[in-house]
Hints:
Residues 16-53, 329-351, 506-531 are annotated as: Disordered. Residues 81-553 form the GH15-like domain. With 584 residues, this protein is an all-alpha fold. The protein folds into 2 domains: 1-9 and 62-81 and 358-379 and 386-579, no CATH class; 100-321, Glycosyltransferase (Alpha/alpha barrel). 47% of the residues lie in helices and 3% in strands. Strands 3-4-7 form a 3-stranded antiparallel sheet. A hairpin with a 6-residue loop joins β3 and β4 (247-250). α4 runs antiparallel to α5 and α9 (251-270) packs parallel to α12. The chain is globular. The two termini are 24 Å apart. 50% of the residues are buried. Residues 1-46, 316-346, 469-481, 490-521 and 531-536 have low confidence and may be disordered.
Amino acid sequence: MGILSGLIRFxxxxxxxxxxxxxxQSQQQQQQRxxxxxxxxxxxxxxxxxxxxxxxxxxxxxLRFERDVAWKRLLVNVNPEGTSKGCVVASPSKALPDYxxxxxxxxxxxxxxxxxxxxxxxxxxxxTRLTEYIEASRIMQHKQTVIGGFEDGxxxxxxxxxxxxxxTGSWGRPQADGPGSRIVTLATLAIHLLEQGKLEExxxxxxxxYPGRPEEGIEWTxxxxxxxxxxxxxxxxxxxxxxEEVSGRHFYTLLTLRxxxxxxxxxxxxxxxxxSAARYVSAADEITPFLARFWDAExxxxxxxxxxxxxxxxxxxxxxxxxxxxVGKQVKKESHADEEEEEGxxxxxxxxxxxxxxxTAAVLxxxxxxxxxxxxxxxxxxxxxxxxxxxxxxxxxxTLAKIVEAFRGLYPLNEGRKKGEAxxxxxxxxxxxxxxxxxxxHPWYLCTAAAAEFLYLLVEDLxxxxxxxxSSSSSASFLHLSPLLHSSLxxxxxxxxxxxxxxxxxxPRRSEWHENGQLEDSKRDPETGEEVEAIGRGARDLTWSYxxxxxxxxxxxxxxxxxxxxxxxxxxxxxxxxxxxxxx
Length: 584
């Protein structure tokens, strides 16, 4: 029980207090410091924050405070003033960069946190938000976009203006994970309502989500049904990744699409539509072999993209993140596609310079679409589906271990942190997107939080393993760690028997948060980690960042309870063994 007692002690008590950052170094001291592998930023030094009272809070109190702030700021970005009902803006930032849009993917990920809270707490205001989001989704599904309409590929559109009108400028299209993510969110809600909801909620599912109102035409097709038909028909088509930079086939996208189809099949079966259910399962089964291709055994990592390149006739030659190739300009509704096509085609790199193969999208994929799969478990001996035996959390953990090590030496912000201590993570080591243009990349809150959340999932798996009916045999085989798992654990979690340091990887140091508890920017300055002007550093109040923090803290609570149960079960087992010996 040494490992479990160490785990529970860390999660219950937390790490030692973290003190405020040291004052800025002198120019001479900075010159003496070893140079990072990242390019140096020539812009003015970041502003230092005064002493932050959040530093002095006990960890649990700090996390409760920040969770409440994150919820508040997340909800501020749901239907803010000046937007149509159901709109989820990516950020209130309207320039440098302009994130005043509703991305299909971001909206689905954010609304999923609301779905989970509604399932737990049944808040009336959350039900209102969800029904408005569903209606907004229906409206956007039936808009004619630059890549098509409802029945010919238009659901692969990436983002919409805040009045639900589609964006018509040049961009990386299609992005099929958008409708896939929306299925995961809304099918989860629909299944809950069918199984535990009131009669009127069941009728709502049939009317608004699946199948809709066939007698009233395609405009009244259920939102989930419409997305499922798109995914089942178009999952093979290459598209752009979640960072909107690389075209090909992506781990994040395909795992999302498979999960969405399986959830859709379950929903269809509940609503007595076996024909559609079988078709969705069949499409999901076709995706599974593709997922095996993302494991690079030679490098020991999950690569996030294979089959680089675009489909013939694909729209858009280039798409950077945020404002694409047109960074620094105010994006208007009128298209400037010709200008961007000409400019982007000259310097287009199909791999976007990702030579390391490392990308936090591999972890995000499991969090957003792989929680119920073996990708989120270390103990896969009970896997009964031979087609998915290649899927296991070892590979994700090994990938994360290499990502952490890559970023440990990349950002000066991470300098001086020992193995096992928290490090700030970005999207991928070769990233050049600085939040406005292409120069020097920064850590991302949502990527850093994802590392912690994934590790908490593994903690739950370890706890469940220790309390299973076959725990003695399972634990014995589990302790004979494969070389891959052994190297990952020793690298990422150096001393499980005394502490579990890395789950706080997902929580920036308390001295790095704003005094009001807000995450002002989507990224932090790589040199200092301190508060900087939002202009030039990324979108402020990124809604996805708040959702990522909320889910990481919630997963921490679940992991702690799982460990408490495991520890209690272990104590009972030991007491029982002692009593048995006494009777002998």
